Amino acid sequence: MDVERSLELLWRDRGEARQSTRGRKPKLTLDQVIATAVTLADGAGEATVSMSRIAEELGVGTMTLYTYVPGKTELLDLMVDAVLAERDLPGPGDPRPDGWRDQVRLYAERTLAAFRAHPWLRSTSMVRPVLGPGLMAGQEYLIAAVSDIGLAPRKAAAAANSIEIYVQANATLFAETAQVEQQTGQTTDAWWGQRSVFWEKYFDVERHPAMTRTWESGGYDAETCEAADETFTFGLERMLDGIEALVDPRFVL
């Protein structure tokens, strides 16, 4: 992978990305190539996206695409960053929710929406992320939300990173659920419904008394999607409670 070329393409709004000037005038734009690749990935997963398939959709020869992007690895980076940019989080000076907690909730809401709309995003690495404007906008937004509430700088950075990791980990689970349902044509609730015999025949209430008490008192009454949303919200709010407990109340909005 050509790292410098990949970064140049990701940050092409800072200047024209290199493109061949030989031959005929380009028929396409890089944004068209990326958008087509994203649409294909949304329909069947990023593993099915190939340069030849994209070229077919755009009505050009496969080799034509290589005048826009070096290869699929760099294209995947561009795809990831494009859908992260769809979160359209407020930038410096833009209107945003008044309280820092509401700002974090907005980040979470839009990140989850991006992963649900593009389930293949779950392959995005949190360890070696795509260093493009879409990712950076999210990180800038989060650090801005927590940097002025009375935390020391390193604690503010740790808080922002913790929120990002928590949200992306859950977004990945939601994306996996959507992807599996898309691939199998079966909802998660239907999958569990087919396994009801497990609870009737194999589940041992004496070996699982805490689970049994929770079940009998209605703790597991929610359907799968609702339970996942409740779990995510509960965890996020408790994380924000913990951060808030560390700050000087004079700073909290």
SSE succession: HHHHHHHHHHHH
Taking pLDDT < 50 over at least 5 consecutive residues as the criterion, the unreliable ranges are: none
Q: Please count the beta strands (DSSP E, at least 2 residues each).
A: 0
Q: Give me the number of helical elements.
A: 12
Q: How large is the radius of gyration? A: 22 Å
Structural class: mainly alpha
Domain HTH tetR-type: 27-87
Pfam families: TetR_C_1 (PF02909), TetR_N (PF00440)
DNA-binding region: 50-69
Organism: Amycolatopsis thailandensis
Q: What is the topological layout?
A:
Blueprint: H1 3-10, H2 30-44, H3 51-58, H4 62-65, H5 72-85, H6 100-117, H7 133-146, H8 153-184, H9 188-194, H10 196-202, H11 209-216, H12 224-246
Helix pairs in contact: 1-5, 2-3, 2-5, 5-7, 6-7, 6-8, 7-8, 8-12
Describe the protein in words.
This protein is mainly α and 253 residues long. It folds into 2 domains: 80 residues, Orthogonal Bundle (Arc Repressor Mutant, subunit A), CATH 1.10.10.60; 120 residues, Tetracycline Repressor, domain 2, CATH 1.10.357.10. Helix content is 62%, strand content 0%. It contains 12 helices and no strands. Helix 2 packs across helix 5 and helix 8 packs antiparallel against helix 12. The chain is flat and about 75 Å long. The termini are far apart. One of its GO terms (molecular function) is transcription cis-regulatory region binding. This is TetR family transcriptional regulator. It comes from Amycolatopsis thailandensis. Keywords: DNA-binding, Transcription, Transcription regulation.
